[in-house]
Design brief:
alpha+beta, six-stranded mixed sheet, disordered N terminus, protein phosphatase, transmembrane helix, phosphoprotein
């Protein structure tokens, strides 16, 4: 039996010997079984029902006998009464004389009726010998002739028999009436009907039944009292249970390994099993004697004789230490107690080891909780060292291989296993005693660490002073370690999934006992758990490094040169891993600039790779000068196609669905117009020059891949010059401590009322909005708008006439002279002439020319000339190389050679052919050589 913890759930016997749990009340079924006399499950109930059945049978038999006896008695009474009445009336004085009178009926009829009523019979009938009725209870029968068994009476012999006459079935007695001479002169018949007899019997039946019920009630009450007494003695047990209990009572009681005593309320020993007799050395006649008379130790005898309960109290009995548990039987039984005794003499020797085992199990449990809380290799090594100090070792050091720290796998053999970098130290106040953290240690071949790594087994050095291999590593440091009191070392290699990671060294100092072989198994288990966590961190480090490398290669390396916006940005990856947030600044034709912010749901390589694909697609679509809504529509189709490819390649049928959002905005500095659309992405913030912050309401389309071909809605805003456009991903405004609305309000507060540069705005936003451990990537893009002034724009309408080319070209030359760009006039006139000529020849009206001069917001102030020729045709020109015999076809070729870039942009009314010329381009002398190079000398 167990100690204090086990006493609560232990079954203990009550005063009747039946066991129950003191901490648990009796079940409802048990109370019902023990409390009902009619329950066939209990012995008392069975006896009660048997007694009741026997009594009922006896009462029923008696009742039947009494009813039968009553019938017989009534019938005998009827015969006797009829005969007596008949004899009395026949022999009455005057009966014979009345028969001789002239009217015998008149004389006899009153006397007969009086006698009938007095005798209580049904009739007194007088018949003549001729069969004529002289008297009758029914006057209508007088004078009638009757036929009956009266011959015997006519001969002078009276008789009694049952006969069916005029009154029905009756008991009839007939007596002759004799004359003075002794002859028979008439017959007197007295009947009593059987129905009257039965009525008398029925009158007695209720009395008989009442007596039977009273007898049955008395018998049942007696049986109930007997059964109640029996129930108390048997405690409601059934016959089978009692048989089984008494059959096994002695076997169970005397076979248990614990001593059991039952002590009465008066301090007498009522029962003791064999184990209790052995433990206490009790005499054979101990039962029935006082506890204090059994020769026990005084404190033990006092406990057993008292009414005080006890739980695992240790008492001395002879040379044994006994754990005593005592429980009182009241109120579940009569006053007394049940005592169990357990010999703990041998357990005392094992208690120390059990405590150590318990502490180590607790340490392993704590290690599972404390090691591996992060996916950082060095921090995991530190957690392993911290959890083992001081509960297993006084000092713990962890050394890891160099590739493991980088997230790579070790070579696993050779000299590489003897070069480890110390990654964690716990338990030392000073860092100069052992090798400090971060130092690369090259162990000699005989050092315990080198041996453990080479042979892949734990190495125990109980006494460091006797270990030559350990002392040879660094004799001077070894002396300082021994002087410090460190005397024992246990080295366990760290290995997980077949990969060698490093080694852990457990040290013990001064008063701590040296390590033993029993400590090796525990150290291996602790190291194995830590190795799995370190390997998880290593693998995560490798994947994280790969993902970060991939992500950095896919994100913008810098900002392109453009003159429309002053841009600054921030990108911060999440602590949990690399995500799929991205941003872009893409220069477009006509000094326009596209701002892009997107977010791929999830983290890891898949998110980074998907982000790269989407970013590349956005660059390609933007290079085609697609409208904002069309670009997001194409991007939605691309994401849907990626999902379809993932579903087709998934082996288990569970493809990873790509979730992505994107916001695309195009700013035109010539008009200050901002056209933007969003696909499931939070809208931008617009900080106006006066410091007010606005979050414009935009038509939001579904996230990418969910649009199902639906059109994307766009919004157009006109922003003043000097406004700041703030684009961001949801990681900036949402985290575990605030929701979306709170994040937007916090962003409004940090942006409002301050005139900052985009770079300062980025810094202020990140400082105010960034949480300690961001769960998601954060991309922030701040762009301050610039406008092209009227002095930087020149526009002309061109009639569809070849003669109009020369005036426009001259006007262009004059404007370039005004801008001080005479050195670029030749190239500009050449490009503009070719573009206008193509528009007049192949396009349709209206035809217009626009010349833009831009100055970049950063870098050298060379600037760019932009030529735009628009017409009403949607036909796009195609660049080709003209043959020698062709008279035309060289215009676009010249434009492509002299311009930095050129292209076509479609509008709602037609198209725009544009070209850009850098003001820092090649000198005019080189242009002539390029022109001459277009023709072959032999051809000329």
């Amino acid at each position: 039996m167990s100690g204090a913890s086990g006493q609560k759930g232990r079954d203990v016997p009550d005063a009747s010997g039946r066991t129950h749990r003191p901490d648990r009340p009796r079940q409802v079924g048990e109370e019902r079984r023990s409390g009902s006399l009619l329950s066939v499950h209990s012995l008392a109930g069975q006896v009660f029902l048997l007694q009741l059945a026997v009594v009922m049978l006896l009462v029923a038999a008696t009742l039947v006998a009494l009813v039968a006896q009553a019938r017989r008695d009534v019938m005998a009474d009827a015969r006797q009464r009829t005969l007596t009445t008949a004899q009395t009336f026949a022999n009455a004085p005057g009966t014979a004389a009345a028969l001789k009178s002239a009217h015998p009926s008149a004389v006899l009829q009153p006397h007969a009726e009086a006698a009938r009523k007095a005798a209580g019979v049904d009739a007194i009938i007088v018949y003549g010998l001729n069969g004529i009725t002289l008297t009758h209870s029914d006057p209508h029968q007088i004078g009638k002739h009757v036929i009956g068994p009266y011959a015997q009476a006519a001969t002078g012999k009276p008789f009694t028999r049952t006969f069916k006459g005029s009154l029905g079935l009756s008991v009839i007695s007939a007596v002759p009436v004799r004359g003075p001479d002794g002859s028979v002169v008439a017959i007197v018949s007295v009947p009593v009907t059987v129905e009257a007899v039965r009525h008398r019997v029925n009158q007695q039946v209720p009395v008989l039944f009442g007596g039977a019920v009273a007898a049955l009630a008395v018998a049942a009450g007696g049986s109930g009292l007997v059964s109640r007494r029996l129930r108390r003695q048997t405690h409601g047990l059934g016959a089978t249970e009692m048989t089984r209990m008494y059959e096994h009572h002695d076997a169970v009681l005397h076979a248990v390994r614990e001593g059991v005593l039952i002590v009465g309320g008066d301090g007498r020993l009522l029962l003791a099993n064999d184990e209790a007799r052995r433990l206490l050395n009790l005499p054979t006649d101990a039962e029935g004697r006082q506890i204090t008379e059994l020769g026990l130790e005084e404190d033990l005898a006092g406990l057993l004789a008292s009414d005080r309960p006890a739980t695992d109290e240790v008492h001395l009995a002879a040379e044994r230490l006994l754990a005593v548990n005592k429980r009182l039987t009241a109120p579940h039984g009569p006053a007394g107690s049940v005592v169990t005794l357990r010999d703990t003499t041998e357990l005392q020797a094992l208690s120390g080891r059990a405590e150590v085992a318990r502490e180590r199990l607790k340490l392993l449990y704590d290690a599972g909780l404390r090691i591996g809380t992060t996916l950082d290799v060095r921090r995991t090594a530190e957690e392993m060292a911290e959890v083992a100090v001081p509960r297993f070792a006084d000092v713990v050091t962890v050394e890891l291989l160099e590739p493991v720290l980088r997230g790579e796998e070790s070579a696993g053999a050779g000299a590489a296993l003897t070069e480890l970098r110390r990654s964690a130290v716990a338990g030392l106040a000073s860092d100069d005693l052992l090798h400090p953290v971060g130092e690369l240690i090259r162990f000699v071949p005989d050092h315990p660490v080198a041996v453990a790594m080479a042979e892949d087994r734990p190495v125990l050095t109980a006494g460091l002073s006797a270990s030559d291999g350990w002392r040879a590593q660094h004799p001077g440091r070894a002396r300082r370690i021994l002087d410090h009191g460190i005397h024992s070392l246990l080295v366990v290699p760290l290995r997980a999934r077949g990969v060698v990671l490093g080694a852990v060294e457990f040290w013990r100092v001064k008063d701590s006992p040296p390590f033993e072989e029993e400590d090796t198994a525990f150290a291996e288990e602790l190291a194995a758990r830590a190795a799995v966590c370190i390997d998880n961190a290593r693998r995560y480090t490798r994947e994280h490094t790969m993902a970060v490398t991939l992500q950095h290669s896919l994100l913008p390396r810098g900002l392109p040169e453009q003159s429309a916006l002053d841009v600054a940005y921030r990108y911060l990856p999440a602590q949990a891993g690399v995500g799929g947030d991205w941003f872009d600044v893409i220069p477009l034709s006509g000094t326009r600039v596209a701002l892009v912010v997107g977010d791929v749901v999830g983290h890891g390589l898949h998110a980074a790779a998907t982000m790269g694909r989407l970013r590349t697609a956005v660059h390609n679509f933007a290079g085609l000068d697609m409208p904002v809504d069309e670009l997001l529509g194409r991007l939605d189709e691309l994401v849907a196609q990626i999902d379809a490819e993932e579903a087709a390649d998934a082996d288990d049928g569970q493809a990873m669905i790509t979730g992505a959002t994107c916001q695309y905005a195009v700013y035109d500095p010539t008009s200050g117009q901002l056209v933007l659309a969003t696909a499931g992405h939070p809208g931008p913030a617009v900080v106006r020059p006066d410091g007010t912050v606005d979050f414009p309401r935009l038509p939001v389309s579904p996230p990418l891949g969910l649009g199902a071909g639906l059109p994307v809605e766009t919004a157009e805003l006109t922003v003043p010059e000097g406004s700041r456009l703030v684009l961001y991903t949801d990681g900036l405004i949402e985290d575990r401590t605030r929701d979306l609305d709170a994040g937007l309000e916090a962003l409004r507060d940090v942006l409002a009322g301050h005139e900052r540069t985009p770079e300062a705005t980025c810094a202020a936003v990140m400082e105010a909005m960034l949480s300690d451990r961001p769960r998601d990537d954060i991309a922030l893009l701040v762009a301050r708008t610039c406008r092209l002034g009227p002095a930087q724009i020149a526009e002309w309408d061109v009639p569809r006439d070849p003669a109009a080319v020369a005036p426009v070209r001259s006007a262009c030359a004059r404007r370039l002279t005004e801008w001080g760009l005479e050195q670029a006039a030749f190239t500009a006139e050449l490009i503009l002439s070719e573009l206008i000529t193509n528009a007049i020849r192949y396009g349709s009206e209206p035809i217009a020319v626009r010349l833009l001069r831009t100055v970049p917001t950063s870098g050298p102030a060379a600037g760019t000339l932009i030529f735009e020729v628009s017409d009403g045709s949607s036909t796009s020109p195609r660049l080709r190389r003209a043959r020698v015999t062709d008279e035309g076809g060289r215009g676009l070729f010249l434009v492509a050679r002299f311009a930095e870039r050129w292209g076509t942009r479609y509008t709602s009314t037609g198209k725009v052919i544009w070209a850009e010329q850098s003001l820092g381009a090649r000198p005019e002398s080189e242009l002539g050589e390029i022109l001459l190079g277009q023709w072959d000398d032999t051809a000329l």
